[in-house]
C-alpha cells in the first residue's frame, strides 16, 4: 500500500460545509482539491489547491475529469444549490437536479478510473454524496424529472435531487465495490450557509416552521461537516457503501409515507431502493451522454 498522502476532491468548497470538510481532510494529511464554480471565492489553505468546476455545465465537468492526474481517494460531492423558482440549464435540465445530481454523477463516473487507481493504491476509495433530510419530501419522478408537466415547486425539486444523491450511493457501490470503491450518502443537518441565499419568503417560512416544530436544530459548520468526514475517513465505512448517514451514524429506515416531523433522522425507502437506484443511473447516464 502507498504511504503517499491521500488525494481528495471536495466540490463546493469555497464556503460553508464544503470549506470545512476540505479543511478537515487537509488537516488529516490529505492533499485536497477545492472544486468550485467561482475560484476567486475559494481560499486554498495548507495542502490544498483550487480548481474550477461548474457542475451545471457538462463541458466544465468533462474538462475537470480530463485534466485530473493521478489516483483519487475520497471524492466528496458536497456542492449544492437551491433555487427560488424555475431555472434550467442550456440542455433543458431543471437546475437543482442538474447541479446537485447530474453534475456529480458525471464527475464521479468521469473520475472512476482515478478512484479505481486510488483503491489499488491505498486499499479503498470512497465517495461521499451529500444528501439532506429534504429527501423525505419527494422521491424521483421519472415521468417529469425536469418539471415540464407539473407545476414547479423549488422545494420538491430540491427534495428530488437529494433523493437522487442517496440513490447514487446505492448504485455506485453495487457497480464499483469490486473496484474497491464505496459510496455513502450523508445528511449534514441544518446549517446556515450560502445555500439559503436564494430562498423565497415561502421557503424561509417553511424552514422557520420546521425549526419551530423541532424537526431540526441548527448546527455549526463544523458539526455539519462531521458526518461527511466520518463517511470519508472512518474505518467502519472503508469497505461498505450504499448507506445514508445522519449524525455520523447509519440512519434508520422509514416507509415512504412516514412524516418528516416524526422521523427527522430517518431515511425513506425510496432513497435506498436498489431498483430505483439502477433506473436512475441508466437515465442519468443517457442524459449526460446525449
Give me some keywords for this one:
290 residues, two-stranded parallel ribbon, 8 helices
Describe the structure.
By secondary structure, this protein is of the alpha/beta class. The chain contains 8 helices and 10 strands. An 8-stranded mixed sheet has the order 3-2-1-4-5-6-7-8, sandwiched between helices.
Give the SSE map:
Elements: E1 7-11, H1 16-27, E2 31-36, E3 48-52, H2 58-67, E4 74-77, H3 95-110, H4 112-122, E5 125-130, H5 154-176, E6 181-187, H6 201-212, H7 221-233, E7 244-246, E8 249-250, E9 252-254, E10 266-268, H8 274-289
Parallel strand pairs: 1-2, 1-4, 2-3, 4-5, 5-6, 6-7, 9-10
Antiparallel strand pairs: 7-8
Number of helices: 8
Which segments are poorly predicted (pLDDT under 50) over 5 or more consecutive residues? none
- Percentage of β-strand residues: 15-25%
Q: By helix and strand content, what is the structural category? A: alpha/beta
Number of strands: 10
Q: Give the termini separation.
A: 39 Å
State the shape. globular
Largest sheet: 8 strands, mixed
H-E order:
EHEEHEHHEHEHHEEEEH
Computed over alpha carbons, the radius of gyration is: 17 Å
In round numbers, the mean pLDDT is 93
Spatial sequence of strands, sheet with the most strands: 3-2-1-4-5-6-7-8
- What percentage of residues falls in helices of 4 or more residues? 25-40%
Classify the oligomer. single chain
Summed up:
This protein is α/β, with parallel strands linked by helices. It is about 40% helix and about 15% strand.
Amino acid at each position: 500500500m502507498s504511504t503517499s498522502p491521500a488525494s481528495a476532491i471536495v466540490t463546493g468548497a469555497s464556503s460553508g460545509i464544503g470549506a470545512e470538510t476540505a479543511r478537515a481532510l487537509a488537516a488529516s494529511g490529505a492533499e485536497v482539491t477545492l472544486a468550485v464554480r467561482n475560484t476567486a471565492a475559494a481560499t486554498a489553505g495548507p495542502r490544498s489547491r483550487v480548481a474550477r468546476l461548474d457542475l451545471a455545465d457538462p463541458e466544465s465537468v468533462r474538462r475537470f475529469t480530463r485534466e485530473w492526474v493521478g489516483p483519487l481517494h475520497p471524492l466528496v460531492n458536497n456542492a449544492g444549490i437551491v433555487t427560488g423558482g424555475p431555472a434550467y440549464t442550456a440542455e433543458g435540465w431543471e437546475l437543482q437536479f442538474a447541479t446537485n445530481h447530474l453534475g456529480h454523477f458525471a464527475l464521479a463516473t468521469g473520475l472512476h478510473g482515478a478512484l479505481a487507481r486510488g483503491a489499488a493504491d491505498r486499499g479503498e476509495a470512497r465517495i461521499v454524496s451529500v444528501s439532506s433530510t429534504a429527501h423525505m419530501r419527494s422521491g424521483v419522478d421519472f415521468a417529469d424529472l425536469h418539471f415540464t408537466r407539473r407545476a414547479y415547486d423549488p422545494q420538491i425539486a430540491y427534495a428530488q435531487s437529494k433523493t437522487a444523491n442517496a440513490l447514487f450511493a446505492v448504485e455506485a457501490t453495487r457497480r464499483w465495490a469490486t473496484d474497491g470503491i464505496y459510496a455513502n450518502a450523508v445528511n449534514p443537518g441544518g446549517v446556515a450557509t450560502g445555500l439559503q441565499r436564494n430562498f423565497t419568503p415561502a421557503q424561509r417560512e417553511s424552514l422557520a416552521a420546521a425549526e419551530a416544530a423541532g424537526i431540526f436544530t441548527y448546527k455549526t459548520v463544523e458539526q455539519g461537516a462531521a458526518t461527511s468526514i466520518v463517511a470519508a475517513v472512518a474505518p467502519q465505512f472503508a469497505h461498505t457503501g450504499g448507506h445514508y448517514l445522519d449524525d455520523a451514524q447509519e440512519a434508520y429506515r422509514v416507509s415512504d409515507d412516514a412524516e418528516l416531523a416524526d422521523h427527522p433522522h430517518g431515511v425513506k425507502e425510496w432513497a435506498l431502493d436498489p431498483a430505483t437506484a439502477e433506473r436512475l443511473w441508466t437515465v442519468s447516464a443517457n442524459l449526460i451522454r446525449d
